[in-house]
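Note to self: keep these together.
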Amino acid sequence: MNTILIDGNSLTLKALALIARDNYKVELANEAKKKVEKSRAIVDDIVENEKTIYGITTGFGKFANVSISKEDCKTLQRNLIISHACGTGNNLPTESVRAIMLLRANALSKGFSGIRLSTLETLIEMLNKGVHPIIPEKGSLGASGDLAPLAHMVLPMIGEGEAEYKGEVMPGKKAMELAGISLVELVAKEGLALINGTQVMTGVGALTVYDAIELLKVSDIAAALSLEALTGITDAFDNRLDMLRPHQGQINTSKNILSLVNGSNLTTRQGELRVQDAYALRCIPQVHGASKDAINYVKERVEIEINSVTDNPIVLENGDVISGGNFHGQPMALSFDFLGIALSEIANISERRLERLVNGQLSNGLPAFLTEQGGLNSGFMITQYAAASLVSENKVLAHPASVDSIPSSANQEDHVSMGTIAARKARQILENAKRVLATELMAACQAVDFREGAKLGEGTSIAYKTIREKVDYIKEDKVMYKELDKVTDMITSGEIVKNVESDEKVNIII
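Structure:
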């Protein structure tokens, strides 16, 4: 059985993806169990002695000054969940819900949240048995954590809300019963411990980062194929230039391109056909490289966040309970805005290369719109339109969410991050960028077929063959979206990158 141990400190992006997408099981480390129990004992003492501590024996937000009796603590926690579950919009996909559940469990396993071990184990059991709460995607301000969506995550645990179980959406209580999982009666601090965190924005954003790393590899493959199809000049990728401006992403991109096109008879040298190429070819290292550096930065932030304590108040090991701001999503909000911008630029330059491929005045001898009988056939004409529309949409989506803030809870919570919006936008930008790159890949393969006697490079030849196994040369007009769907699916599955990297001579570095 594929099982991953969690302890709050060592979760990786790869492990998160395996649990979210491949249904790997989760097990709580023994040391984590001890820490959770120790933290809970501190909360029990607070309740028993009726000490005034925010969120344990007081109300929430603006009601922080309202004392709650020991007898009312259970009611307080249940009311917190049912009142805060007011999300709206489309439901988050199952993989995002699983990532959210995992990240909340991992944060709680650090032992600073005061939750009972049995409650944490119920959340893990739901994850392992495939009880996936229905979580609407909208409704979080990204400070005081992702309160509304995380409340939806908790609803099935208390017999409320809805959940997906074995592919069917049903009442949460029924899903728990069918899976053989006991319902939870929340006690002091537990409701707050479950919903006061950044796990929705981080779950959605972390999967996007994971996919973005792979998409950047695809972007170099697409660029290399276009470089060959357009008889591009390789001098611009000379390592001596990169070392004069040694950004790592730029250095890596140049290495990737030269490795991919090595052995090609389509690329040229400076002065052979022309002195220099347009920016969309010549500046691939600078543009792709900048996005790589940005995404590697975001990856570092995410790896910190997925192993952090992000709720409030925090129960320290010495018994101190401190009300702070670790729930505030600003570190993720800025990071996911940056992620969206970086991915937008990858799509931007890809669409410009696509335009050069289909434009007979810019393609260095290729037929207009990559079709044999232009006029009777439109060829790839409208594929560029569709790509341009996605690029334009990305420009709107790339507007940062993190610069906005709306006061809430009667101005007690007067600055919020909007980080969950940033994460969702970055995800949509990634999907749009993926389609643009699929279009460039398909057009570049079509263009190569017009180059008589073409010999592709060591890496690009593998990419070309991989695509041609499912998408044929287009001699006459056909329903294009179906062909584009095939290439898009190949990017999503990782098939193109995997095949290219199977060649020991080709190493794509991010």
